[in-house]
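Bench notes, bay 3.
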Amino acid sequence: MKKLLTILFLLNISMLSYSQVSFSKFKFKKDSPFGCCPGRKMTDVKFKITSDKAIKYVRVYYYGVNQVGDAVSSDIVGAVNANVEHTKHRMIFFTGPFETNKTYSRWASGTFIYPLEVIAFPYLLEILYMNGEEEKIKLNKENFHIYFPCIKKWIDVNVEDGI
């Protein structure tokens, strides 16, 4: 049993070495300066470059997901036509240069406005290396934990019903 756990651990570490970027934090935090904007959220991120090449840009596309697994938008909450663009994605863009084996923390203020509890859930990762190579990684149930180990479980996001 101990040998099996050791093998699984080593396999997991070898998978992380191919991840290029590993996020230890990717979440919304309350962002309401002086209490003026209730429901306003900031995106708080921490990541480590696990690639063997320096990275120029990192882009993460994500949805705000409510407690029932629906993607929501905050552009026109409470308006007459509140359901017009309820599946709109968000993008957070990081500019390097990012060196290998270093950890970076970033945050973006006012990225999402929604009065109820909502989480940031990524679905696409784009990496542009300093040498001009580009990589697009569509996140799915099998690979999301390699890039986002901070997210404990996969959500099959419903992009049809959210408001």
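Next record in the batch:
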Amino acid sequence: MNRHFSILLLLVNLFFSASCFSHQYNLTFNRPQSTPQADYALELLKLAYADIGFKIHIIDFSHQNALLAANNGVLDGQLGRDASIEENYENLIRVDYELFKFDLVLYKNCLPNSLEQLDSVAIVDGYPVQEHYLASTQFAGNIIKVKSMNTQLNLLAQKKVQGALMINFIMQNNELPSPQGCFVKEVLSTYPLYHYLNKRNENLVEKLKTSLINLANNGTVYALRAKYGLSF
């Protein structure tokens, strides 16, 4: 009787140990700004992770510090970033599947009429693509880093800067004030967005890529794009 009880107790312990172990299959990422594009990418990634037996845990975290935290392993990666981060955040590995594309937009005074002629531009800290683009054009003016698009536009309206670099899908989904006077928007470049994992999760990269491709092939990606009203 004692032997049977011991075996039963062992089985119960194994069951609960397995249950506890299964809850360890969580990866933690910072919460993205809510836009149709970001919400689409998050839902798609949740499905891809579930397909390989993992769950995504989303926490509130400073956007300005999120890349460094992901690179250092405090976060498990980044839900969506462009390839410009790869130069300075070598611990982040790309899942080579395009989540969507976005435009880098210059919002500026009508005159002067080109980026190279501007004395100053405002960018939002935490989006390396903006600095990366300016460096690629050898922009010689002043670069003012701010924390929000509202601040960018306020500086533009007050003529404290001559231009602002913005990411179009964030612009489209926010109630942004419109500066008075003559202003124009110019698309500077288009970039694909990818999911990134810290190198400690490198074993998941190819599995996730395969899962995402399968979700595209079975129509799930198309259905999610329709759900969020996206046409890219």
